[in-house]
Each structure stands twice: as C-alpha cells, then as structure tokens.
Amino acid sequence: VMDNITLALCKVFGMPGQLAREKALHVLQKLDMASHSAKYPSQLSGGQQQRVALARTMVTDPELIIFDEPTSALDPLMTREVGMLIKQLHDNGVTILCVTHDIRLARLLSDNVTFLNHGKIRAEGAFTDLALRETDPDIHCFFSEAQR
C-alpha cells in the first residue's frame, strides 16, 4: 500500500522517499488506513482498495479529481463511506467530476448534474431543481430512485 501511494510522488514529482512516506502516512491516517500501509492491495477489501486509490490521488494535492463509477461493486455501507470521503474532498475545495449511475451518490456529491444518453445531454442543472421540475420520464425515474 505504501509503495503504491508513494510511487507517483517519488517518480513523477521527484519527492524524496522519506518525505513521500510521511505525506502518504498522513493521508492514510485521514482515511483510517494507516494500519494497512504494509499490506498488499490483494489483502484489502474492496472499500479499502478504493480508499488506497483515493489516498494515491490525495497525496498529489489535486485541484480536480475525476471519478468514474467510484462505488461500483461496493456494498451499500462502503458506497456511503467512499461517497462521504469524496464529499469531504469537495468540502475542502477540490473540484469533483463524478460519472455515476448511482443517483444517491450523485445527490450526495453534486452541486450540478448532467444526464447523458448516447453521448447527448438530456438534462442538466442543480440536482434539486431537476428533481422538482424535470418532466422527462426516464430522468424522473432516476429521481424517484433517489427518494428511496
């Protein structure tokens, strides 16, 4: 896990190894993963692997993070946990672009949503505005799912 997180810091950013490990450990502590720093990814659960992937990104102090289905194949508890971690990044000033089919995750994370169908925009706007005003039956179905 530690090597996985520090690789980019050392190889791409030229950060000295000890400093990279200290920075990685700080991020792992934030994600409650410090006790797993010596493990191999195959020894981690799906949610833990997602947190390692998030740590790998967080150590680079990005202004923007793009997520593509960040909660796919996770159980509902891990989905919420990963969603809350992503929301915390947003709350700390990181711009988030998240592609998801999970409307509950979209509701948790988004200021604005865009619905695409075959590469074309069908609707876009603030989540609550679309939830109240959208008349497209397919999109309305998504919002109905969010109310469950």
TrEMBL record:
A UniProt-annotated Pfam family: ABC_tran
Compartments it resides in: Cell inner membrane
GO molecular function, one term: ATP binding
Primary localization class, coarse: membrane
GO CC, alphabetical: plasma membrane
Entry annotated with the keyword Transport: yes
InterPro entries linked: ABC_transporter-like_ATP-bd, ABC_transporter-like_CS, MetN_ABC_transporter-like, P-loop_NTPase
Ranges for domain ABC transporter: 22-72
Source taxon at top rank: Bacteria
PROSITE patterns: ABC_TRANSPORTER_1
The entry's keywords: ATP-binding, Cell membrane, Membrane, Nucleotide-binding, Transport
Bilayer topology: Peripheral membrane protein
Family: Belongs to the ABC transporter superfamily.
Protein name: Amino acid ABC transporter ATP-binding protein
Provenance organism: Salmonella enterica (Salmonella choleraesuis)
